[in-house]
Amino acid sequence: MKYRKRIMKSVKERLFSQREIKPSPDGRYQDCWWWTGYCNRRGYGLIWYDPFGGKLGVHRISAILFKNFEISSGLQVLHHCDNPSCFNPEHLYFGTHQDNMKDKQNRGRC
After folding, report:
1. Measured between alpha carbons, how far is 25 from 40 in angstroms, rounded to an integer?
2. pTM over 0.90
3. Which of 51, 52, 84, 105 gets the highest tally of CB atoms within 10 A of its CB?
4. Which of 43, 54, 48 is nearest to 86 (CA)?
5. Dihedral (C-alpha) 79, 53, 11, 89: value to the nearest 10 degrees?
């Protein structure tokens, strides 16, 4: 258990060390936590996350740390702010793949 707590603290420190707080791209949401580290081609921040032995989206890690998200739930982590690099837990919610596709269509990204 100590090892898990140490990992979580380290991950939080890494998240906060590469966080810039500013509005969402469309200005509708204040206080997006923009990831300033590595992002994939779609704009999602990624870091190495030991418990899963690979890279994981920072928004998913934020959901694990601050919203008790379970990766094994089969749900996805979605953004209210429509900002892929945001990992502010207040901007995140859970949904199915179908919810994600419906959200994408409603926002005109398909």
Report:
1. 17
2. no
3. 84
4. 43
5. 20
Q: Cα(94)–Cα(45) distance, rounded to whole angstroms?
A: 18
Nearest-angstrom CA–CA distance, 62 and 68: 9
Cβ proximity of 49 and 58 under 8 Å: no
**3-class SS letters over the chain:** CHHHHHHHHHHHHHHHHCEEEECCCCCCCCCEEEECCCECCCCCEEEEEHHHCEEEEHHHHHHHHHHCCCHHHCCEEEECCCCCCECCHHHEEEECHHHHHHHHHHCCCC
Q: In the chain, what is the straight-line distance between the N-terminal and C-terminal CA atoms, in Å? A: 43
CA R_g for the chain: 14
